[in-house]
Amino acid sequence: MKAFDYHRPAAVGEAAALLATLADSRPLAGGMTLLPTLKLRLAEAPALIDLSRLSEARGIKQDGDALAVGAMTCHADVAASPLAKALIPGLAQLAGSIGDPAVRNRGTIGGSLANNDPSADYPAAVLALGAVIVTSRREIPADDYFVGLFETALEPDEIILAVRLPVPRAAGYAKLRNPASRFPTVGVFVADTSAGVRVAANGFALGVARLPEFESALANHFAPDAVAGIHVDAEAFSSDIHAEAAYKAHLVGVMARRAVSTALELRGPP
Amino acid sequence: MGKAIGIGAAPLRKEDFRFLTGRGNYVSDLKRPDMSYGVFVRSPHAHALLTGIDASAALAAPGVLAVLTGADVAADDLGGLPCGWGITDKSGEPMKEPAFPLLAQGKVRFVGDMVAFVVAETLEQAHDAAELVAVGYDALPAVVGVLDAVRDGAPLLFDDVPGNLCADWELGDRAATDLAFTRAAHVARLSLVNNRLIGNPMEPRAAVAEYNAGTGHYTLYSTSQFPHVVRFLMSALVLKVPEQKVRVVAPDVGGGFGVKQFHYGEEAVVTWAARKVGQPIKWVADRSEGFVSDRHGRDHVTEAELALDETGRFLGFRVATLANMGGYLSTFGPNIPTNLYAPLLSGVYVMPQIYCNVKVVFTNTVPVDAYRGAGRPEATFLVERMVDVAAAEMGIDRVEIRRRNMIPREAFPYQTPVLLQYDSGDPGGCLDRALVAADVAGFGARKAASARSGKFRGLGFSTYIEACGLAPSRFAGRLGARGGLYESATVRVHPTGQVTVLIGTHNHGQGHETTFAQIVSEKLGVAFEDVDIVFGDTDKVQFGMGTYGSRSLVVGGAALSKASDKVVAKGRKIAAHLLEAGEADIAFEAGVFKVAGTDRGRTFAEIAGAAYVPHNYPLEILEPGLEEQAYYDPVNFTYPGGAHICEVEVDPETGTVTIVGYTGVDDVGTVINPMIVEGQLHGGIVQGIGQALCESAVYDESSGQLLSGSFMDYCMPRADTSPHMSVATHSTLCTHTPMGVKGCGEVGTIGSPAAVINAVVDALSHLGVTHVDMPATSNRIWRVIQNAALPRAAE
């Protein structure tokens, strides 16, 4: 790790101003990706802007018919939140399955969304739930937010403050972990929302994406069997040393079925 | 007042207090006055010519004290890293043994090969300067797999090693084996890969070196499993400095698994540089560096054939293996896939004829050497897979075919056709107990229950034997060892009767400080806490070959036992004088020398006191003091063995394998501390499960880059995927070691991979699956299921 300046502003405006004025500076949320990258000298940042003191980016609360999660909320707090568990238990369960305890107590939802790793867990949930990303400048619907591999709609000095997740009728997540990194090889989040059934999967070569065929099948009948037999094209996946593209494509169907089962279990009897 | 705690007891480990309270003393904890920091510049290319090194920018960087390159190594006439074993090609020619320079000379041969060493006042300065060393490379085509390396036209690592072939080695009677195949009613065939592994001990390798210009003494602190061997090799052959002026200290070491039992270039470079720089230097590998510089393990490609008669009895075994050596010969490299592999191919069976050919091959990868088990896991995996394949093809039950061919207990000592004579064992007894412990009788019901939830359940057996306790020197010498393989121990009794043991083995997790103290406590009757074990410092300990190959208790413990006996013998003489009795009349029991048949006696402490305060002492016949030393070199290997049974459940939707039951019944000879033995078995089994299910070092075939170069991509076994293990010992005594011990450090790693994979294949057998290569990852199993000819639902 090379030397860098460290700033810990208390106000959003100050943080945005530092990011705008300090060349090549980087915002620091949980640091779960950024810090290892710096330690390995794979990246350099002359200045890090620590967002941990921004009060606007903290807390979990109900906001009308949505759950609002502050960007700096760590995964363990979402997993343990009575409000999250009551309103979107599938989200709390997903948060409790990310990485390991150390990661869950440092990593944040805002950091995960800003990084948009194709193998991150949260993007699938945020996209499937039709959430809104609240930033220092604007509100971005999830459908417009995820642009591509590690790419988002965020401007360089734009800071995520919160995520507003509409409360669904039912939602669930299932994934197969890469046994080494424990990142999902493929994860699928299904949500039966007021805007219809939405399904999103991570693990695609270009990052998180919705699955229209699965959505229409589940819209007809929200049950695991409804998605059986849907073909997923392996072209959208890349092969790596852990999993070939065809296997990942196959897993989408398996995980979608399991996610629907989980969603139904979490919803409880009608 | 403490009491004696002897053989068979399970006291808590003495060493754990300091480890569990953060008081361990590891190499990276060391701080020396004016200590500087070193960073190695390593090759990013798998194979390239060095066209030049420009260190000027690095030398001008802040805090930089030195930048050393291959040119400096050559200017100082330093030797290359020596290989400790010289094997012989079947032509009679010695193996090809190209130089392994400390820093690359003209060419780099693997990603991670050392090119330069940068020393600076701080670690960050050294890292910054290392980035400024401009190295010119002219990239060459690389070859990483053994099959590619021996093909015509393959890139050659060394101009004078045709075909990248270090040696074409053989063992066994080829003609007699071929003849056996002509009489076969059935021949079973199997092609398999034994996957390349990276040991990844918890503590990365590290070295701190200093030079005393006043006395000309070097001190190297290193994460080594065998400091005396490092001192000898480094002083005599590499740095060419007087051996008595070199001290090597291996303090607390955080795991080895073989990875730390080689003399590494980093140790020699740091020591050499400490003199040139005039300041102590610390180098600590980071994990990424460990992945591309710690010696790797395994990496075989094998074709095998087993000839059987019509009743399923084995007639002959023919094996052809290609073994990857990596870019250079490491300390034990060529010994592992030859001498520690082929002699194990008889397994626990009457195998009348065996012929094994091993082509030892250079590739553009990290050098390959011993890793826990070292050759024996590869042999066991092959034999036990082969037996299952043959059983399936002949329609014989897998337990039955094993029983039909197994060496019966009464047939020991048993001479195999491949050098080894097994002195003792009871493979059938281990199997019988394991079958009960694993509730094999209830497997059918469990399989049916799994099928009801859509899962495939399988059961796998591995009945194995291994050779450990390396030594014996005479035998090893015939096989090409260039050193001895004995062990030494000194028992130093203090005037109080308390004891310090100085032993040539090295404790890096095995619990020696406890086990060895139990031996002394038993032998001398002294309190367990009155015995301290000293190891790992060439200035304190006389000599030793170190810890590897399950040898510490077998060879080191035997030396300790012998030295303890010598102490008792001298004590008896002193007691005879003090008690005015004949030496033959002195009995030693429970820490008291007594005149037999009387109550007259002297305690062990009183005898020790008399030896050091010899006011009343037979000085005319006996020297004062009470300290004895023994060197021990056994007459044979020891042969631990056992039966492992693994039960797995496969999720056919994802291909995920879950181990749902694991049973091991092992014959490790006399058990000194059953708690420590159980821990060794647990750890060994988990390491074997790692090889079977998740671990694999993967190189990119064209670039030679290590793709599994971090824990993000190299999958270590973890607690949450490790099963509950039921382990027990079923011991026969070794007939030639002093205490009947056989060793237990590697048995788990040797027995388990075959048990796991045999269970996986069994779970998939209804699909026509006959073999699955390691690691049995979910993708690989899913693919196997997809490719199976006639997929049917689980029954």
Automatic annotation (TrEMBL), chain A:
Alphabetical keyword list: FAD, Flavoprotein, Oxidoreductase
UniProt GO molecular function: FAD binding; oxidoreductase activity
InterPro entries linked: CO_DH_flav_C, CO_DH_flav_C_dom_sf, Diverse_Substr_Oxidored, FAD-bd_PCMH, FAD-bd_PCMH-like_sf, FAD-bd_PCMH_sub1, FAD-bd_PCMH_sub2, Mopterin_DH_FAD-bd
Occurrences of domain FAD-binding PCMH-type (ranges): 1-170
Highest taxon of source: Bacteria
Pfam families, alphabetized: FAD_binding_5
Secreted as UniProt keyword: no
Protein name: Carbon monoxide dehydrogenase
Automatic annotation (TrEMBL), chain B:
SMART domains listed in its UniProt record: Ald_Xan_dh_C (SM01008)
Aldehyde oxidase/xanthine dehydrogenase a/b hammerhead domain span: 21-141
UniProt keyword terms in alphabetical order: Molybdenum, Oxidoreductase
Gene Ontology molecular-function annotations: iron ion binding; oxidoreductase activity
InterPro entries, per database record: Ald_Oxase/Xan_DH_a/b (IPR000674), Ald_Oxase/Xan_DH_a/b_sf (IPR036856), Ald_Oxase/xanthine_DH-like (IPR016208), AldOxase/xan_DH_MoCoBD1 (IPR008274), AldOxase/xan_DH_MoCoBD2 (IPR046867), AldOxase/xan_DH_Mopterin-bd_sf (IPR037165)
Domain of life: Bacteria
Keyword Hydrolase tagged: no
Transmembrane segments: none
Name of the protein in its database record: Carbon monoxide dehydrogenase
